[in-house]
TrEMBL record:
InterPro entries: JAB_dom_prok. SUPFAM superfamilies: JAB1/MPN domain. Pfam families: Prok-JAB. This is Metalloprotease. Residues 9-111 form the JAB domain. The keyword Magnesium does not apply. The keyword Nucleotide-binding does not apply. GO terms for molecular function: metal ion binding; metallopeptidase activity. It comes from the Archaea.
């Protein structure tokens, strides 16, 4: 399985965001530096609900350091939904899903075709 690298500070921040937004989803774009995800840009609209369709309405920022997306699932299922896969296929890159209860083990990473990647936390 291929590996995606994420900085520990970012991972912990993402888990915190997922808990704060619960029972709603949060979503954001991920910035990478030298192959490691280091920064998140949060979705500008705080009113999205349980559907991931909101991704489709976003204006994707023109920023070449954006290499992926992240969103939370208010339930324990970390698999991408049909809407998620549709979005992934359009965006490319790497996609993190953080499922309830939002601990390190609830984080999954997927390629744009929905195949899973291993998450490696970098200190
Ligand atoms: Zn989803």
């Amino acid at each position: 399985m291929e590996t995606v690298k994420i900085r520990r500070e970012l991972l912990e921040y993402l888990l915190e965001l997922a808990r704060d937004f619960y029972p709603n989803e949060f979503a954001g774009f991920l910035r990478a530096k030298d192959g490691v995800f280091e920064e998140v840009l949060i979705a500008p609209d705080p009113h999205f609900g349980r559907s991931s369709a909101f991704f489709n309405t976003w204006m994707l920022p023109h920023d070449e350091s954006i290499k992926g997306t992240v969103h939370s699932h208010p339930g324990p299922n970390p698999r991408p939904s049909g809407a998620d896969l549709h979005f992934f296929s359009k965006f490319g890159g790497v996609h993190l899903i953080i499922a309830y209860p939002f601990v390190e083990g609830s984080v999954r990473a997927y390629r744009n075709d929905g195949s899973e990647l291993r998450v490696e936390v970098v200190e």
